[in-house]
Amino acid sequence: MALLQILFLTGQMIGMALPDGNDMWVVRVTTTGGILGTGIGNFALSSEGKLLCAAEMQCVKEFRPADFHTLIEGVQAGAQPASPSYVSLCNDCITRTITISRRDSMGVVHTFSASWDDTTRSRLPAEVSRIYDAALALIYRK
After folding, report:
1. Count of C-beta atoms within a 10 Å radius of residue 131
2. Helix or strand or coil: residue 34?
3. What's the predicted TM-score (pTM) here?
4. Alpha helix locations (H) across 2-65?
5. How far apart are CA 105 and CA 103, in angstroms?
6. pLDDT (tens digit, 9 = 90+) per residue, 7-22?
7. For the chain, give me the number of helices (H) and strands (E)?
8. Structural domain tally of the chain?
9. Measured CA distances, 94 to 12, 36, 65, 101 (Å)
10. What is the mean predicted confidence (pLDDT) over 82-95?
11. Domain that residue 31 falls in
């Protein structure tokens, strides 16, 4: 029974909507794959300072959204219209998908999404990699 609970919680979807108002953003990360196929946990953070994580992860309660503002702006400035996928044929690799949504000062929503695994991370745009690393640091910060 405990193994079933762990599998369920690891694959838990984390829903967080784009906050209302202009100049707002949300970053969502989902993971799949690995030995059990359930990933390593999903998380989301927003410009309102909210951070939600799967049950098995250790999230901080609050963070400074201003620390992410420049990173988010960098992705939107150079974002490609398509959602690139940098996933290999590695059967046991963890696949990560990041979706970054931002409503600009004119109220237009821009969305960037990319997927990668450990063997293809070097192909990920540097700005996206920095956002992922900064978000991950929030989750495992003690």
Report:
1. 22
2. coil
3. 0.82
4. 2-10
5. 7
6. 334 445 567 899 999 9
7. 3, 6
8. 1
9. 15, 10, 27, 23
10. 74
11. 2-140
